[in-house]
Fold this sequence. Notes:
The protein is built from 25 helices and 2 strands. The chain has 655 residues and is mainly alpha-helical. The protein has a two-stranded antiparallel ribbon with strand order 1-2. Strand 1 (263-264) and strand 2 (273-274) form a beta hairpin. The chain is globular, with a radius of gyration of 25 Å.
Amino acid sequence: xxxxxxxxxxxxxxxxxxxxxxxxxxxxxxxxxxxxxxxxxxxxxxxxxxxxxxxxxxxxxxxxxxxxxxxxxxxxxxxxxxxxxxxxxxxxxxxxxxxxxxxxxxxxxxxxxxxxxxxxxxxxxxxxxxxxxxxxxxxxxxxxxxxxxxxxxxxxxxxxxxxxxxxxxxxxxxxxxxxxxxxxxxxxxxxxxxxxxxxxxxxxxxxxxxxxxxxxxxxxxxxxxxxxxxxxxxxxxxxxxxxxxxxxxxxxxxxxxxxxxxxxxxxxxxxxxxxxxxxxxxxxxxxxxxxxxxxxxxxxxxxxxxxxxxxxxxxxxxxxxxxxxxxxxxxxxxxxxxxxxxxxxxxxxxxxxxxxxxxxxxxxxxxxxxxxxxxxxxxxxxxxxxxxxxxxxxxxxxxxxxxxxxxxxxxxxxxxxxxxxxxxxxxxxxxxxxxxxxxxxxxxxxxxxxxxxxxxxxxxxxxxxxxxxxxxxxxxxxxxxxxxxxxxxxxxxxxxxxxxxxxxxxxxxxxxxxxxxxxxxxxxxxxxxxxxxxxxxxxxxxxxxxxxxxxxxxxxxxxxxxxxxxxxxxxxxxxxxxxxxxxxxxxxxxxxxxxxxxxxxxxxxxxxxxxxxxxxxxxxxxxxxxxxxxxxxxxxxxxxxxxxxxxxxxxxxxx
Length: 655
């Protein structure tokens, strides 16, 4: 009898192969939502209560990565052994990953920390000395921010009495108004990601380096779990575990430059180098293009030399750490040119998308997308118009609102493009949206209501990280790896993960605030950054100095330099410098990663010179092991902090 004729054998064969055939299912959508909610709650608890590592600083949030890898590498293989038919297929795991990425961009240093801090700040931090009541309160509509009725905001920041319920009555209307704005920004981000997906993936062939190691880890059928993998795993976990002994024995020697690297300064006028060896950054950077890695550290070295010389001659070109003030506009010129050039080379694609959207024929098919191009174009236009309308109703002038939305979208698009092309997990924009709008128009030309709303909107780019658009761009790439007919379901998973994550994060953050006191979060976005937007706006109201011409000049120089570098890169294949390195050189998150990027470049350069692409592929498992071991080590440290050091945790993950 042939083996397949045995019903028992045939049943087991079908059960074993079923997960491989399964597409985007209802349970995968529910898991995407659960991973999003779990990441939001887990991150808020770790950062606000335990005071341990910052879990959402990177564009692959550690909270999401930890939750997802636990599912993909532990729970799902265990399920495959015990009951194969309940195991998740590769497609289902990818849907879960997409939801986790979107959810990971929401808590703390993603959305809710900045957003809740910004709307609570103007009434809680107002004092007779800072004159916020005189300068801001007359311009804040009733629906824009909660009032300190019955000490509602005092209890949020300082903790309420035992058994106190959250005073939802002061939060309902502001939360509803802001959620309408945030949802519109999410729709605009998703629509723009769908419109540009084919151009980035197929025409420009962006590599999305931060997805590659995680997708390799997801597929247990690949021969990735080799001896090299376990060596990398043991090195990363061993280093973190060794340094954790210091938690219990303060005098115990640590392996240096792992948890916190010292700054090295060559001379007092020159910015320093952050010498932390960040295994998280290195493990992702190994998958990036070697020319890009070289350009990142090369332009950072040029930034240090340029800034040191200019500082020596009396120009305020940088702080002791990163680019600051007027000279950040040099990088902004490169950043804006990067976005403009990307749209220019996509012009034929965008023209075809518009032709399809208006019902005309075009050499393009939208059957591969999560949503139809007509829906995406309409969604982008309507959501953008709504954001402009929202800002106008809040008090902005219509021209200021248009420029503010344009600056926000440039930040979203630029950061997303850089992360998708470069593979850096720590990236932000040179200058925030509030500063761009204020300086381009001039404080003298801005009304009090416009400056007030700009102070609120300072929270909408997540300290220049692009809010959730980088995550949506990568979720769109993940959808491209799913079966064609199931991709609209991935869109459903993304939207549900976003909605559930936002609700869970806001509710849990407010609960923790009224229970523990938000000021005890020791959280940069909720306390210090939330005040900075209003402090900057107040300084412009009190002293609207005449703008100098140096900023437009530096903006133009940056744009010209970026244009030349872009021309050289596209005109001469041998040109080694990638222009993106110039656009982000000296920016805080990027500059903090320079030393680790340099290490990754050295390793990859040596491997390619010795053994070429074959040797590079052989060492992929090693860096997968580094990433997995590092993530496991961070998780182990969190468990130790929860058990032995609650409220006094140890920050071992960051840039």
